[in-house]
Every structure is written in structure tokens, then in C-alpha cells.
Design a protein that fits this description.
Distance between the termini: 57 Å
Structural class: alpha/beta
Radius of gyration: 31 Å
Strand order of the largest sheet: 15-16-19-17-18-20
Largest sheet: 6 strands, mixed
């Protein structure tokens, strides 16, 4: 039997009597799998290994301490042989077949009426692989499929609802506090600084499961193209990205979208740039969802505060140059931050108020020769690095037309960048191609 004549199916064994003949390691492994399926397992064997003994002592299986008898087949739905004795396994299999009971013969897969595949579960997806009777080949294939599922390289999106999908709503279309959504949930996923390879494995998996993606302008946009459009079975994408001077959705509107879509029974992924909990307002979104009875999962992302400077070869800490760093936005008051060149300051969304930020830091006593780098569109093909000093960066940024999205790094660590001049006496701008 090569496997061509197999009919793949899944058995519901919950509460049904099954028989395992044999007491060794294979028998124990098969017994555990049957227990996981909810079966009532009886093991028949005159002697048993440690694993079977433990299962019996825990009351999980019934161990009949004798050799196999034909009467053991009475009332069972499924049989697994694993005695290590081919003649005995063949007898059990033949007698089971005579009673129209499916039996897996561990000693002779070619003659076996049923095969046990290599199996695994990823969330509520069960993977089962038969490979022509070659268990090692089946396991290798199973492991590869599981890896692809866990990394989001295979589609996990549900197309059949398993719940009604909608709770009672209040007049605003949102669930009242204390109610629970049916089936729907929200995942706040940090997508990293923009490169599609910098999202976490869990984030990529959730995207593969999503019914709806609520997308930011600064998230990893390339991933959306990989998911396919809704007409082709991909998720529905709702664009809420904010651009300076052209807000497509307010934060309140975004919050309401997340709750509305989850209450409709959808798996909703809020795909954000960087990390949702680092100046990303993810905390507000999570609170709003929980207040309206929606389950929320938070998936951290690679924050642009650290990763974008790294794209320009700048560590935020470096032995002998800086042992600490602070992260702020250009909208924040900088008067309380350490004003020393050996303490790195990272400004997010700080281009518009760069001149004001520089003035505050100069008043605080930070020297004019303190190195500054502005990294625009980090980790994208259009990345551009502008390096100058605190005294010259404003004029240099205006001259080259620096624009968001950009991360500003202030401190001696900028000297480590391969784009910096030896003495930082001359300002420079480097475009990556």
C-alpha cells in the first residue's frame, strides 16, 4: 500500500472506547495521542514500560495486565497494535478487520487497514501528514508545514464562522462595558520600522489569520501586498494612516473601527509601525477594546527608536560613548532630559520642531559640536542619512529637505556611524540606493 489508496479523514473519538495492544514506548505514545482526542483508552499488555505505568497510575488509561484476547475487541471503535511482535500484531489486525473495526498495525504498515499520520496543532489547525509509510519523512514534512503556519507563510484566515459573531450593541454601535465579543478579537501588532522582514513571527502569523487589517501609513506596507486583496480571499484592509496635515482617521475613529469589526466576529489586526507601546498609542487602543468587551492581544514590534539608528550604523548606547538613552517626540518638552553628549537622545516625529528642540538643548548646555544624525525612511530602499552637529543640523536639514518619517539621534554615538566624517567637521547627507 503506497498511500494512493488511502482516504484521509479525521475521527471523533471523544468518549469512545479504543484499544491499544502493547505496553512499550510506541504504545504509550499512541495512547497519549488517543487521550488527547478524548478517547477512553484500554491498554492490554502483560508488562508495560514506565510511560504506560504512569498513565495507568494517573487513572488516564485502563491497563489490563495480561496478553491479548479476542474478547478485548468487544465494544471498541478503534485499535492500535504496538506489541513489537509481528505475528501478534497481525492477529489483532486480522481479528479487528473481521469485526469491521479500524486497526493500525504498527508492525506492518503495508498490511495495515489504517495509518497514523505525523500530526501537530497550530492554534485550531491540525496538520496530519502521511508519506508513503515513511515516518521520518512524514515528520519532516509535518515540521516544515508547522513552521510555515507559525511564521505566517501559509494562510490561516478562517472562512467559516464558528460563532454568531455579534453581541448586543448600544446605540453607538459598540458593545457596553462588561459584554464579551463572540468570535472576534483584536491584535495590536508592531510591524517594525518598515522592512517586511522585521516583523515578529507572531505578528506575521496573525496577519495570515486576519479578516480585517487596520493599517498605518508607517507600517510594513509590503506585507499587505503579500496578503492579497479581499476578492481573492485576503483580508479587508482599512487604511487609517496619519500623514502630517492630512489625518485620514482620528484616534477615536480608529478605536471605534477596531471594536466594531471585532464585534462583527472578525479577527482584526491593527498593523502599526514600530512597537504599538512605544509612542504608538497602542495602550489607548487596548484600553478602549477591553472596555467594550473585546479581547486584545499585543504583539511587540521592533521599535524605530532603536532600529532606525541601527540602519545607519548608530547604536543608541556604546561603550565609552554612551551608557543610556532617552526617547521622546519632537512635541515633548526636552527641558527634563539629560543634556550631555554621552547620553543619547532619540527624537521621533521631530522634524517639524527640530529648530525648537535644538534651541532647548543648546540652552540646557549641550555643546554646538554635539553630533546629530537624521535618518529618513529607515530600512527602506529610500533611506537617507544626514549627519551634522547641533550647531549646523537645522540649516543642513532645511537645505536637503529633510521630511518625516525620520528619527533624529543626538549624541556622541553618531560618531560610530560609517556615514560620519572622522572629525564631524563637515556635514554630509547620504542617500542609499
Amino acid at each position: 500500500m503506497s498511500g494512493i489508496d488511502l482516504y484521509p479523514t479525521s475521527l471523533r473519538l471523544l468518549g469512545r472506547d479504543v484499544l491499544v495492544v502493547g505496553g512499550g514506548a510506541v504504545a504509550a505514545r499512541r495512547a497519549r495521542g488517543l487521550l488527547d482526542a478524548g478517547a477512553k483508552v484500554t491498554v492490554v499488555a502483560p508488562e508495560a514500560g514506565h510511560d504506560v505505568v504512569r498513565l495507568a497510575e494517573a487513572g488516564l488509561v485502563t491497563w489490563v495486565r495480561r496478553g491479548y484476547a479476542t474478547s478485548d475487541l468487544e465494544g471498541v471503535w478503534f485499535v492500535q497494535t504496538a506489541t513489537g511482535l509481528p505475528e501478534l500484531d497481525a492477529r489483532v489486525a486480522a481479528e479487528a478487520e473481521g469485526r469491521r473495526i479500524w486497526c493500525v498495525n504498527a508492525a506492518d504498515h503495508e498490511a495495515s487497514a489504517a495509518w497514523t499520520p505525523a500530526t501537530a496543532r497550530v492554534d485550531d489547525v491540525t496538520v496530519a501528514v502521511n508519506a508513503g509509510g515513511d515516518p521520518r519523512r512524514a515528520k519532516a514534512l509535518k515540521d516544515a508545514i508547522v513552521l510555515a503556519l507559525r511564521t505566517g507563510n501559509l494562510p490561516l484566515r478562517r472562512h467559516r464562522r464558528t460563532s454568531p459573531g455579534r453581541d448586543a450593541h448600544d446605540g453607538a454601535g459598540l458593545a457596553p462595558t462588561g459584554s464579551r465579543s463572540l468570535g472576534g478579537r483584536v491584535a495590536l501588532v508592531g510591524g517594525g520600522p518598515g522592512d517586511t522582514g522585521l516583523i515578529t513571527v507572531r505578528g506575521r502569523q496573525l496577519l495570515a489569520e486576519a479578516d480585517v487589517v487596520v493599517a498605518d501609513r508607517l507600517g510594513p506596507r509590503g506585507l499587505l501586498a503579500e496578503l492579497g486583496d479581499a476578492a481573492a480571499g485576503g483580508p479587508r484592509v482599512i487604511e487609517v494612516g496619519k500623514a502630517p496635515g492630512a489625518h485620514q482617521a482620528t484616534q477615536d475613529e480608529i478605536n471605534e473601527i477596531l471594536v466594531r469589526e471585532a464585534l462583527a466576529g472578525n479577527v482584526v489586526v491593527r498593523l502599526k509601525g514600530g512597537d504599538p507601546y512605544v509612542l504608538g498609542r497602542g495602550g489607548e487602543e487596548a484600553e478602549f477594546c477591553r472596555r467594550h468587551g473585546v479581547d486584545v492581544e499585543v504583539v511587540p514590534g521592533v521599535t524605530s527608536a532603536i532600529s532606525v539608528p541601527a540602519a545607519a550604523g548608530i547604536p543608541v548606547t556604546h561603550r565609552g560613548l554612551a551608557t543610556g538613552f532617552s526617547v521622546a517626540t519632537g512635541h515633548d518638552e526636552l527641558a527634563e532630559l539629560p543634556a550631555r553628549s554621552d547620553h543619547t537622545i532619540v527624537l521621533l516625529m521631530g522634524v517639524r520642531r527640530l529648530a525648537e528642540s535644538v534651541a532647548v538643548l543648546r540652552v540646557r548646555g549641550l555643546a554646538a559640536h554635539t553630533p546629530v544624525a537624521i535618518v529618513e525612511r529607515g530600512w527602506t530602499p529610500d533611506q537617507r542619512v544626514t549627519i551634522a552637529t547641533l550647531g549646523t543640523i537645522v540649516d543642513r536639514a532645511r537645505a536637503v529637505g529633510v521630511a518625516n518619517p525620520a528619527v533624529i539621534v543626538i549624541g556622541d554615538v553618531v560618531r560610530v556611524s560609517p556615514y560620519a566624517t572622522a572629525d564631524l567637521g563637515a556635514s554630509l547627507t547620504t542617500q542609499l540606493h
